[in-house]
Amino acid sequence: MDTKVDQPLPVVDASKGALLVLFLVTVIDMIGFGIVIPFLTYLVEDLTPASQEANIGIWVGILMTSYSAAQFLFSPFWGSLSDRIGRRPVLMVGLVGNTVFFTMFGLANTLVMALAARFLAGVFNGNLAVARAYIGDVSTPQQLATRMGLIGAAFGLGFTFGPFIGGELSDPASRWEFFVGTIFDSHPYLLPCAVASLLSVLSLLVAVRNLPESLPQEHRTQGERKSWAKGMVHTMRNTNSMLRSGSVSVVIWVSMLFIFGFTIMHAVFILYTQMSPADGGLAFSEADNGRVFAMIGVSGILTQGFLIGPLSRKIGTRRLIPLAIMVTGIGLVLIPYTQFENRWIHILLVGALISVGNGLFQPSSSSFLTRIAKTEGYELGVVMGAQESVGALSRILGPLTGGFVWVYTDARAWPLDYHTAFHLCGVLMILAALLSLRLPTLEDEEHEHPSGKDTSEE
Questions:
Q1: Which of 5, 81, 166, 278 is the most exposed place for a label (fewest CB within 10 A)?
Q2: pTM exceeds 0.85
Q3: Which domains does the chain have, with CATH numbers?
Q4: Greatest CA separation for the chain
């Protein structure tokens, strides 16, 4: 493999306003992903004909998957387009698309309309790679890690506020008399979607004023345009190559199994919590579910802010990865064993396990992959692109798998009942943890004391 890295482009200085726009673009993307989680099952129930009620779980999985599928399919297109016409117009088109299709989803009165709106929202939110490219354009090597960390913080913030907004603002007419008899009464899930659209509009206004172009005309792609099909083929070839590339492939496969198991939960969590206590569920409302996911988001942010650094220094990233996977897996498996009488205590403890495990795994695996790629001489862009592609495929397969497993098991007797999908999450986490034991020990971790003190220079 050719590992020669192209010469870096001259760095264009970025204002604080430009970085704020990129932060907002990422936050809105994650709000768009997470805002539907608390109410999606209820929306599907409202729109599903009586003759199709048995397929509610499948429709939940399809709608959850459609967003990630669209992002996966169209990210190469937006990236290629931004190389030709610049980053700024692509990012702004994405914000316009968000505004339109978030609102369209809230107005959906059929499952087909909801699916179309969700897919198109994912299409226009497929420009996160462009945001990362913008940061690469305007950052020196010394600034890059910190500014990419800004994107990571935006992910956590968006995933925290998205479900919270979706839960708290769903069905407002049932809680606030002001909304009775309005469009928000006849379309109970429009208000959170309208808020997401408003945030997108505000970000667009900030972008118009504060987002300069980062890619000079002379550095834009010239000559023949690469078609979407060629871009996808190129992405698939790179991904296939990385999946067979020694230690790099191990990290990517571990990430794939982890994300697969984690996103199964996205489809089945609400299907479980909204069940009646007589059937083993928790009778949670949209707001209850939103609060749970907001708590998971906050706990994840705190984990990445205060816990991962000391733990990485103490036990090393390589040991931290399987530990994080197992903590997450235990939390996922315990979800359906929540007792109704103590449901909030149990679900918050389980949520803490999931969020801490995920908060430790995501940055640890990315950091470890980066270090291996540099150690073994791979192009970092190709490696991270492969990880993104595999992650996207896992986010597509996870909710779909969860929906199908739920439909075919929830009404049966134990062990093939509503516990089954969560048991599957645990199985995938065990496989990921076992595979992670094959990760190599990096040279700098070999010289660490158990306390985490680096003795390589003593």
A1: 278
A2: no
A3: 12-215 (1.20.1250.20), 234-439 (1.20.1250.20)
A4: 74
